[in-house]
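> example.struct
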């Protein structure tokens, strides 16, 4: 995904989350040598670490590979340690299509 296309998808995802009652904490959080967290949001007392993908079909979810998920998990633990947080959290995915957005909550392998 090109950076411009990624930015557009992430901005759509942020607006979607806000409409669903999420509070956006950070975007594009970079954990040194580990990876990037696209969106960090909260809803209630739960932190949501969100990976954003865009595509023309549901197959875009398959771009979240085991390797990508492993890096994301390491980045999340780094974030929690740096911010000194002991909170409930989950990993979500948002798939942005041309006319539709899907939120897939609590993704795991």
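> example.seq
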């Amino acid at each position: 995904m090109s950076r411009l296309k990624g930015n557009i998808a992430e901005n759509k995802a942020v607006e979607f989350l806000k409409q669903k009652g999420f509070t956006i904490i950070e975007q594009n959080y970079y954990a040194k040598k580990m990876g990037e967290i696209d969106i960090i949001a909260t809803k209630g007392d739960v932190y949501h670490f969100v990976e954003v993908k865009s595509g023309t079909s549901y197959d875009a979810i398959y771009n979240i590979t085991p390797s990508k998920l492993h890096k994301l998990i390491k980045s999340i633990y780094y974030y929690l340690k740096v911010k000194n947080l002991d909170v409930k959290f989950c990993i979500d995915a948002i798939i942005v299509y041309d006319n539709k957005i899907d939120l897939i909550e609590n993704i795991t392998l």
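> remarks
The mean pLDDT is 90.
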